[in-house]
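Quick log. Single chain, no ligands specified.
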Amino acid sequence: QVQLVESGGGLVQAGGSLRLSCAASGSIFSIRTMGWYRQAPGKQRELVASINSGGGTTFADSVKGRFTISRDNAKNTVYLQMSSLKPEDTAVYYCRADVIDSTVVRRDYWGQGTQVTVSS
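-> predicted structure:
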């Protein structure tokens, strides 16, 4: 079994910054892509940013130039540095990992979500 634990959410004023972390643990052989998604009230969950095992990244247009994503493969951890935050960034942020476990089974895992609230 694999668990993802997120941290770093909270309340911040517009223009501020937050850093989210997501650590994967358990029976992990390797992790392919790791990413962050978010879901605002009444809206569908959307991709914010992702990073593959080689360091290649993808960003939603709405966060380009403001958010960066990085990972520490030795720690099975992915980070989302969010800057110049806007009220429309308010959402529950979820971590996702494409994991190959110790039995060589590949599947997606999700974290429990962390709330990010940006006040105007």
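The first strand starts at residue 2 and ends at 7.
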